[in-house]
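Work Package 3 (structural annotation) set out to generate three-dimensional models for the target panel prioritized at the project kickoff. During this period the team completed the workflow that converts sequence records into discrete structure tokens, so that structures can be stored uniformly alongside our sequence database. As a representative example, we reproduce one entry of 405 residues exactly as it appears in the project archive.
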Amino acid sequence: MRNSIPYGRQNITQEDIEIVIETLKSDYLTQGPRIAEFEKAFGQYCGSKYAVAVSNGTAALHLCALALNVREGDKVITTPITFAASANCVRYCGGEVVFVDIDPETYLLDIEKVRKLLEFSPKGTYKGIIPVDFAGRAVDLEKYRSLADEYNLWIIEDSCHAPGGFFTDSLGNKQVCGNGKFADLSIFSFHPVKHIASGEGGMITTDDKGLYEKLLQLRTHGIVKDDEKYQNSVEFAQGTEKSQFSDLNSQVYPGWYMEMQDLGYNYRITDFQAALGLSQLKRADEGLERRREIALKYEQAFREKEFIKGQSGIVKGHAYHLYVIEVEDRLGLYNFLREQKIFAQIHYIPCHLMPYYRERGWKEGDLPNSETYYRNCISLPMFPALTDDEQSFVIEKVNSFYDKK
């Protein structure tokens, strides 16, 4: 009997298991050396100066919004075709989310619609933009950076779908997602269905030292442990002056001392999660190559099929977290595939039509491209461990559903 085929699935190797066991046997389960190793390796993978590992992608988004001082009433632009956290991070800080429609050819936030919104609004109306590398397709951040600079906006790149993805800049150079050159901050997720799995987990990358230091503080309750940054006096801390004769009292502040200087959160990742992420990162390019092979096979199978709507073709630099097609009778196909134990998924119900955002004034008809996309979209199985036989079975069943109609 054939096993069920999910839309996404982690791939855990013996090497992954061994590094986790090794970490579990070490002196540290959290706040240990594996976290720094993972941060350094991931920063190098993206080409960013700094990386901060956190408990999940949502925590990463929230910390970014906090570090950029999103406050009550601040307006931030994002796409409705994304997981809700891309928008919710603004609301966590009291800001207002302004959804802008997608480009139906790319499924990404439409930069021309964003430009028009900014042009017809007084300068200063908006504080920032959160573009999403949806499905693994990299946003052209060079263009967004130019637009953002014109209107004094910050950028958080939501790259949860796109580690290893890239776009080509105006000079023909490859710009990897999260490299720190264009976005103020970029975020990634290590949920099991993502390219790199650590159970749960996330990462923030940046080239901005000030934001990096702020993130480190906010990640751990807003606590500072640095003699040069303390605000309370040495006397209050019950420390000692430096001795000119001995290094026994070399610390001005006592070793136990720390300060909570801001309202932060416990958004730390554990050492064994970081160890798993570190091991998975070593196979990231291999997994990316396999995803692109799977995407190519799908594209060749469904090219010029009458039941396919929307985009087609292989996109350079696409990381293929998802392989999305738009089809006629999406509900019928979805139910038929489930009967065959093929568990396709829908990404996403437009955020602006979730009840929470409807209550904030959004309604059907506001963003027609996104709403049309939602009526037709379906994500087919896409993960490196998907076998050729399993993918052929998926293709066969999709075709057979429409052949019968």
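The two ends are 27 Å apart (CA to CA).
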